[in-house]
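During the practical work, I worked with a single protein chain and the tokens that describe its fold, as given directly below.
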Amino acid sequence: MLEKLFALQERNTTVKTEIIAGLTTFITMAYILFLAPNILGIAGMDKDAVLIATALGGGLVTIAMGLFVNYPICLAPGVGLLAFYAFTVVLGMGIPWQTALGAVFISGIVFLVLTLTTVRQMIVEGIPASMKIAITVGIGLFITIIGLKLSGLMTITLSLLPDTVAQVAATKGHLTPSSTETLLTMGNLADPQVLLALFGLFFTSILMARRVQGALLIGVIATTLLAYITGNAQLPQNFSIISIPDFSKAAFFQLDIPGAFHMGLVTIIFSFTFVELFDSMGTLIGTATKAGIAKPKEGKFPGLGKAMTVDAVGVSFGSLLGTSTITAFVESASGVGAGGRTGLTAVTCGVMFLLCLFFAPIITLVPNCATSPVLILVGALMMEAIKDIDFSDWTEGFPAFLVIALMPFTYSIANGVAAGLIVYPLMKIVAGRTSEVKWIMYPLALIVLIRYIWY
């Protein structure tokens, strides 16, 4: 039955490999189960309600991606869009969270229309091979920088001027310091958590060098055990394995769609749609390419339409349950790095999300020092594709470079993709090689420019 559903032999994988890959992806993205309630709780939403919506929405949409599309891609409320929803829309603009959920629902419908009319597919097909490869590499660096931050190996040093400190206090922490006041630096190598992350990084890389199956998952388990043995991780107070969710607190169908129309949230809806469009497109391209499903150089992307349909439905479905935009997670690459090649990886991860409705406390046992090395190593695996970009051709190499560099260093997949969409046709026009640019790249570049000028 599993062979018929997921074509395991065709994709050169096994049930064991797929399940291990699904568990690996889940472990690396399980933090969203606690991050989403904390962020949306600040926006006035009940934390228990958000946890229920996150576990239920992430689980069901991820299972749908596995069963109907056969992709090893997992979905959950996106971190960037959670922050935009809470801090910009609800707190910054004073919009009720129910109305903001209505805006999310509408953006999902717009997304679905773009998918069913094949506009999204045309966008992906119109993007040149060099940019698609650059997206894969850029996502690798993006999740690497996430891993470096979580591990403590990389930190941000602040040297704030007195005037800046006063402004920070006046704005309650919402301030961007100048470039001279911030610096990316090496973390504290004497910190036990950092040392544990280093252990996990090198122990897991040794297992990978020895081609040990399930190396990433083994590394997570070994580092977690070492953290508890050395006293650098402790069981939470009043810990219990089973936690029954209080469904009476659920925020199902509490969104206010008419309110979103009445308040004229066109800019908000456009922003949700824009970021989700390029974030999900980048993740789908990068992960599917690494899994061997998509072949950018040959222009092959089987199942793209179905994957985008599930992704679009997930946006509106999440708002109905009571959470912000559900989107494809970049951490899906960790499962691909563990050997995941089919939807069985996604189904495994989705089932784990559903189980967390009742076993959420167990997830708190895995510390960041155990999961962060996985993200760093998967980033290294995704760098392999960079050899297929022709950097000797400046019209191909420079746009690809911007895509790769801006994803991690602006902390946004959408920013990297957007830069490539603008610069690629510009370079071709300047070089007199417009015949190499597909027509859809021009309206895309214009839309991106308008969005950044407007925003």
The first helix runs from residue 2 to 6. The first strand starts at residue 75 and ends at 77. DSSP finds 20 helices and four strands in the chain.
